[in-house]
C-alpha cells in the first residue's frame, strides 16, 4: 500500500501500464490487482474503481494488445509482399511484447468479456483490409501462419536466423506451393 497521498487523473491507463510492465517482467501468474496497485503507487483498493477482478484487468490488457496489433496491421503499406510484411509484423509484435502476446492468445474470449473478442475481430479486419484478395479461408490461414510462427519464436521453439524476412517469405512460398 502506498504511504503517500496520491491522486491520479488517468488511473485506469496508469494501472494498465503497470499491469503490462508486470506481465512482461513476471508473467501472468504473478500479476494481481494488489501488485499492479503497488507498482502504480496507489492504494490496493484503487484498481477496483476500474476492474472488478484480475480477469477484468486481463481482458483489458488482451484488448489493448489486439488494438496495438490492429494499428500495426493498419499502418503497413499494401504491397506485393503484403503477406510477408504482415507475418513479419506479427513476429515483431510478439518479440517486442511476449507476455502480452501470450496473454492475448491464451485469454479465453468466451468468458463473457466482449472487449477482447471485439478487439481481436478488429485486428482480423485490419488484416483483411491489407489482403483484399484473400478469401475468408486464406485470411484465416494468414492469421494462423503469423500467430503460429510468432508463438514458436516466443516459446523458443524456432529460430528464424539473421534474415527473418527471407525466412518468412520462404515459409509462405513453401506453403503456397504445397497447397497447389
Quick description:
This is HTH tetR-type domain-containing protein. The protein has 180 residues and is mostly helical. It has helices at residues 11-26, 33-40, 54-74, 82-96, 98-106, 114-130, 136-154, 164-179.
How does this model look, in words?
- The protein is an all-alpha fold.
- Helices cover about 65% and strands about 0% of the residues.
- It contains eight helices and no strands.
- The radius of gyration is 18 Å and the shape is elongated.
- It starts with 10 loop residues before the first helix and ends with a helix.
- Residues about 1-5 have low confidence and may be disordered.
Can you give keywords for this protein?
180 residues; mainly alpha; elongated; HTH tetR-type domain-containing protein; DNA-binding transcription factor activity; Homeodomain-like_sf; DNA-binding
